[in-house]
Amino acid sequence: MGRAPKWTGGNRVSTVLGRKLGGELNKLRVAVGKTQQEAGDALSATATKVVKMESGSVPMRDPDIKSLCELYEADADVAQRLRELARRDRDQRKVKGWWDGDPSLAKQVEHISTENAARSIRQWQMAIIPGLFQTPEYVRSMGVADLSWDDMDRIEGVVDTRLKRQARLHNDNPLKIHAVIWEAALRQLIGGPKVMSRQLAHLCELAELPHVQIQVLPFLSGAHPCIGGPFTILSFADEGAFDVVYQETAKSMIWYEDAEKGAYYAGLFDRITGSSLAPYDSLQFISSIQKEMAA
Predict the structure, then answer these.
(1) What is the rounded CA–CA span in Å between residue 238 and residue 246?
(2) Which pLDDT score is estimated for 269?
(3) Is the confidence at residue 224, as pLDDT, over 70?
(4) What pLDDT was estimated at residue 185?
């Protein structure tokens, strides 16, 4: 099911990765017909500890995961992926990133920290350029049009946040991202022709990076399966291994952490990539629109 973020900072809180790990352990336990009390006994602990683990509100130790996987008869590959997920959750809880302690980012902390922990992202975007690809001028133009961004200091804060998130694309362990963008987002004149021309030129530059793949879904493709709205899939190991999905609305961000939802959105993404232009053709398509706007 979808859940609104519950991050409030600190160690003993519900996190996206913690809830994902807890949900996987819960599914394994139910599949073999074990109770939370039986799981607690295997850990020499109470059922309350298992409840907290399955809710994702506490960090999990490798020995506990090993004991539970043995009790649940999980195979070695599943146990290894769960330990990797637990390690990433522990690291995420401990890290003090640039996003911590800034009250203006209170509603974004879980999103930013989870994105920071991800290895790769698959994203479908309809109306705007993906945030990790936006130029400062593009962000400012959106801020001026958004009445909720009521002063220039706030807009510049949003620009600064975007640029810090984008650093993941250029560090020693870059974030791998595969984005599919609807043609509408390329043609919407946010900020006017000059701003959009520079934005599209920036997209072409990013598409040259080995860890960035951009595809365009053109209008001529007709009806498609993702008309319902944009979404992002975050992977923390190999794609498909315990993915989480989020959808951003005008008022909130919803996380989908169960395997069924992950598989559903992964299937949607595969279908939309199949309907889109190939990466090289997409780059040529973006370049042609950019030249029109620069003229």
Answers:
(1) 18
(2) 95
(3) yes
(4) 96
